[in-house]
């Protein structure tokens, strides 16, 4: 380690060149029918008995493993934390998680009310400024009549229009309104049916219907 970074790198490069040459000879021996030393040969170990670490065929020996930028290559990344199951995630979920208890502390609601008042005041002030600007330009302000009825809203023939005095708003009835005479006739017919059902027997009703049929009523 006391040789210095550059000397250590040069020595490590020289060792790797010799290892490449050794690998070429092993490949040639195999081509000539000899044993495959790359497969059956002993593994390359360091002084601690561990396999020599490397990256893409390049090996690092001795102090070269502690050089800047080399140590990080062989540091094992920490295992990711185990993922929680759905049951574990749902265990801590309650009404507070969904915000149903945000107002229980009595802090949020007053803040919301204060902000609402501020927004309303700003909107009113903006409207006043725009109104004053229009009046300053001489533009006449026409307020929208929210009770106005469009022509498209008038429906079928049975719709009746009621007009008040001159200058008052017109109203449209969208259902047919019966007259007083029609109401009285309907009440009389209803009363007759109630009396017949109360006092007349079934036989009498049948005879009455038969008589009406014969008379053509």
Question: What do these coordinates show?
Answer:
With 217 residues, this protein is mainly alpha-helical. Among the domains are: 5-74, no CATH class; 182-215, no CATH class. It is 48% helix and 5% strand. It contains 7 helices and 4 strands, in the order H-H-E-E-H-H-H-E-E-H-H. The protein has helices at residues 5-31, 37-40, 71-74, 86-91, 108-136, 180-199, 202-215, and strands spanning 54-55, 58-59, 160-162, 171-173. The protein has a two-stranded antiparallel sheet with strand order 1-2. A hairpin with an 8-residue loop joins strand 3 (160-162) and strand 4. The chain starts with a helix and ends with a helix. 1% of the residues are buried.
**SSE run:** HHEEHHHEEHH
Radius of gyration: 51 Å
Quaternary arrangement of the chains shown?
Answer: single chain
Biggest β-sheet description: 2 strands, antiparallel
How many distinct helices? 7
Task: Quote the beta fraction.
Answer: under 5%
- Structural class comes to mainly alpha
Q: Quote the average pLDDT.
A: 76
Strand order of the largest sheet: 1-2
Shape: elongated
Poorly predicted residue ranges: none
The count of DSSP E runs of length 2 or more, i.e. the number of strands, is: 4
Helical proportion?
Answer: 40-55%
InterPro entries: Helix_hairpin_bin_sf, Isy1, Isy1_sf
Organism: Serilophus lunatus (silver-breasted broadbill)
Protein name: ISY1 factor
Biased composition (Acidic residues): 139-158
């Amino acid at each position: 380690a006391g040789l210095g970074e550059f000397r250590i790198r040069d020595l490590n490069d020289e060792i790797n060149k010799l290892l490449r040459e050794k690998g070429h000879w092993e490949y040639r021996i195999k081509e000539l029918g000899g044993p495959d030393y790359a497969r059956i040969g002993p593994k390359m170990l360091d002084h601690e008995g561990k396999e020599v670490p490397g990256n893409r065929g390049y090996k690092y020996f001795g102090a070269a493993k502690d050089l800047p930028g080399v140590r990080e290559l062989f540091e094992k990344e920490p295992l990711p934390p185990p993922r929680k199951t759905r049951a574990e995630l749902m265990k801590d979920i309650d009404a507070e998680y969904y915000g149903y208890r945000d107002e229980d502390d009595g802090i949020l609601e007053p803040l919301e009310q204060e902000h609402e008042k501020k927004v309303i005041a700003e909107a009113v002030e903006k409207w006043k400024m725009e109104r004053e600007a229009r009046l300053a330009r001489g533009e006449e302000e026409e307020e929208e009549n929210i009770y106005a009825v469009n022509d498209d809203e008038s429906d079928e023939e049975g719709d009746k229009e009621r007009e008040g005095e001159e200058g008052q708003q017109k109203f449209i009835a969208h259902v047919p309104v019966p007259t007083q005479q029609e109401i009285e006739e309907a009440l009389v017919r209803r009363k007759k049916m109630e009396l017949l059902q109360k006092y007349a027997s079934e036989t009498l009703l049948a005879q009455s219907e038969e008589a009406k049929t014969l008379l053509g009523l």
